[in-house]
Design goal:
This protein is of the alpha+beta class and 251 residues long. The protein is 35% helix and 25% strand. Strand 9 and strand 10 form a beta hairpin.
C-alpha cells in the first residue's frame, strides 16, 4: 500500500487567519487530490512542476515541488528533459528560471575520477555517450538526446580542441540549426567570416545552406544544445576537417 500524502502547512501558517483556505490546502488539495490513485505520485509531481512553471511561479513553492518530485523518483535527467520540453511551450525565460532552482535541488556530484566527470559536475545536462558521428569530428565528442518530440534536442559535448568538420545544413525552405551554449567555452565560424567565441548563454542561429563549424576552445571542454530546424528536403553535407593551422589561429 502506498504511503498516504499529508500536509499541515496550511494550518500552521494560515490556520488562524484563513481557516477555510488552510482546510482546502491541507485536506482537499493534499489530502484528497494528491492521494487520488488514477495518476501516480511521480506523474503528479511532474504535472505540478510544469503547471507552476507555465504560470511563472519560481519562488519557494516551486522549490518545494521540485524537491517533492526528486523525493518521488524524478531523476536529474528526467527533470532536465521535462523542463526542456515545457520550455518549448512556456518560453525561454521561464525555462532558465526553473533550471536555476532545479540545479540546487538535483545537486548530486559525480565521483571526480576523470576530466569528463569533473566537467559533468559543472553542467546540468548529461554529457551522454561517444558521438556516433565521430568520423566527422577532430577529437572526442559526446552526444545526449534530451528530447525527440516536436523539435529534437541534443546536448553535444566537445573535449578540449575537439571540433566538427565544416558542414552545411541544406534545405529548400526553412531548415538550419540553432545552438544554445550551456557549458565551457567554444567557437562558431561561418565560411569567410571570423570565428565567434561561445560561452554559456550564447545563442547561435545558423541559416540553412551556410557552411560552418563549431567546437571547443583549445584548453576547455564545451557543450551546446543543438536544435535541428525542420525544412524541405533537409540534409547535412559534411565537408573537410578544420585544419590544425586554421584552428591554431583562434585566440
Amino acid at each position: 500500500m502506498k504511503e498516504k500524502i499529508t500536509q499541515t502547512a496550511g494550518r500552521q501558517q494560515l490556520g488562524d487567519f484563513a481557516p477555510m483556505f488552510a482546510h482546502l490546502n491541507d485536506d482537499v488539495l493534499f489530502g484528497e487530490v494528491w492521494n487520488e490513485e488514477a495518476i501516480d505520485t511521480k506523474t503528479k509531481c511532474i504535472i505540478t512542476v510544469v503547471s507552476l512553471m507555465a504560470s511563472g511561479i519560481t519562488d519557494s513553492s516551486l522549490t518545494y515541488h521540485l524537491q517533492n518530485a526528486k523525493t518521488h523518483g524524478v531523476t536529474k535527467a528526467e527533470i532536465a528533459a521535462v523542463i526542456t520540453h515545457a520550455t518549448m511551450y512556456c518560453g525561454w525565460p521561464k525555462g532558465w528560471a526553473v533550471f536555476r532552482l532545479a540545479k540546487e535541488v538535483w545537486n548530486e556530484q559525480s565521483p571526480e575520477l576523470t576530466e569528463k566527470d569533473r566537467y559533468q559536475n559543472t553542467i546540468f545536462f548529461p554529457i551522454g555517450e561517444p558521438n556516433p558521428y565521430g568520423q566527422f569530428f577532430v577529437g572526442q565528442s559526446y552526444l545526449a538526446l534530451l528530447s525527440d518530440k516536436q523539435v529534437p534536442v541534443y546536448n553535444v559535448t566537445f573535449e578540449p580542441s575537439c571540433r566538427n568538420n565544416w558542414h552545411i545544413h541544406h534545405s529548400d525552405n526553412a531548415g538550419g540549426q540553432m545552438l544554445i551554449c550551456v557549458g565551457g567555452r567554444g567557437y562558431y565560424q561561418e565560411w569567410g567570416k571570423p570565428a565567434q567565441e561561445l560561452v554559456p548563454g550564447t545563442v547561435i542561429n545558423i541559416p540553412a545552406n551556410v557552411r560552418h563549424w563549431h567546437g571547443a576552445a583549445p584548453d576547455m571542454w564545451f557543450s551546446h544544445l543543438a536544435f535541428e530546424i525542420p525544412g524541405e528536403n533537409a540534409s547535412t553535407e559534411w565537408c573537410e576537417a578544420v585544419s590544425d593551422e586554421e584552428y591554431g589561429k583562434l585566440k
